Amino acid sequence: MKKLLLCAAVLALTVTGCKKAEDKAVETGSADTVKVEAPAAETAETAAPPSKEEMEKAWGEYMTPGEMHKLLASDVGSWKANMTMYMDPTNPTKAESTADIKMVMGGRYQEAHYKGKIDGMDFEGVASVGFNNASKKFESTWMDNMGTGVMYTTGEYDPASKSITFKGSSVDPMTKKEKGFREVYTFVDDNTRKMEMFDSDPTGKEYKSMEIELKRK
């Protein structure tokens, strides 16, 4: 009985609301006509969902490694990395490390492990790089034992210079604020790579903060 009463109450409220809406429409319309709006055009939310074949085709293209993944695979191997850091431009810091690079997950992503010493301290870093077939951009992460943050960048390949320019931001440990940075990774030749890092000072001016030359072992 209570359920029937509740349903009746809801129905009454609905009818009353509709009646008020109709009355308002009549009041705001012309003396003889009531304006009736045409239904809105079909939106993406109401459009028919993609077919199974369309979904399979899209995901097949998304998951299949292509030419840019072959480019990443050309880095596979062991490398000697000569690092130069420009924290003090007049007195740059030199360091050496090794990099072991491999492709994982069926050639879809590149994974690099760096080890060495910087100012007498053990250094270790891990990088991952992939090419997103949907966005048509490279995506990269970096983390090391010299901090506690993960750096994320996206980039595009320039065939003329044979380089990928990555852009991202990180939190400055001194100011605790985000600042932008840029990284240029150049495929110099089959056995040489060069990575250049550019940071921004408090005024936003860009400066070169690090360079790494990699030579295949």
From TrEMBL:
Q: Does the keyword Signal apply?
A: yes
Listed PROSITE patterns: PROKAR_LIPOPROTEIN
Which superkingdom?
Bacteria
| Pfam families the record matches | DUF1579 (PF07617)
Q: Which residues form the signal peptide?
A: 1-21
Q: Which UniProt keywords apply?
A: Signal
Identification of the protein by name? DUF1579 domain-containing protein
Give the organism the record lists.
Answer: Flavobacterium agri
